[in-house]
Amino acid sequence: MPSLAQMTGSLHIHNFYIGKLKAKQEQLFDSDLDLAMLLDNVTAVLSEHAVALAEDIANMDDDS
After folding, report:
1. Angle made by CA atoms 39, 21, 11, in degrees to the nearest 5
2. Burial track 9-47 (b if 16+ CB lie within 10 A, e otherwise)
3. For residues 41 and 24, what is the distance between their CA atoms, to the nearest angstrom?
4. Cα separation, 15 vs 30, whole angstroms
5. Over the chain, what is the mean pLDDT?
6. Which of 13, 47, 50, 58 is the most exposed place for a label (fewest CB within 10 A)?
7. Residue 54 has pLDDT above 90, yes or no
């Protein structure tokens, strides 16, 4: 199992890319709706994973 520091770093990376994807999606919404929808789907998957990571981190903090 990864360390708490590794998981926290991964969560920060997830959140960084979620922000980047949302910004790009907004830029593409008018010009390329299909790509914007694809980016929305990718963002949703990353967001779900970020929530799971946050829960795992909280559980590790509780165990410490």
Report:
1. 115
2. ebbeebeeebeebeeebeebeeeeeeebeebeeebeebe
3. 13
4. 24
5. 94
6. 58
7. yes
Res. 57 pLDDT band, cuts 50 70 90: very high
Query: d(Cα 2, Cα 52) in Å, to the nearest integer?
Result: 14
Q: What DSSP designation does 31 have?
A: T
Residue 32's contacts (CB-CB under 8 Å, 6 or more residues apart) are none
**Alpha helices, DSSP H, located in 3-32:** 4-28
Confidence of residue 63 (pLDDT cuts 50, 70, 90): confident
Task: Check whether 23 has a pLDDT greater than 90.
Answer: yes
Q: Tokens representing 51?
A: 């929530």
Residue 1 clears pLDDT 90, i.e. is over it: no
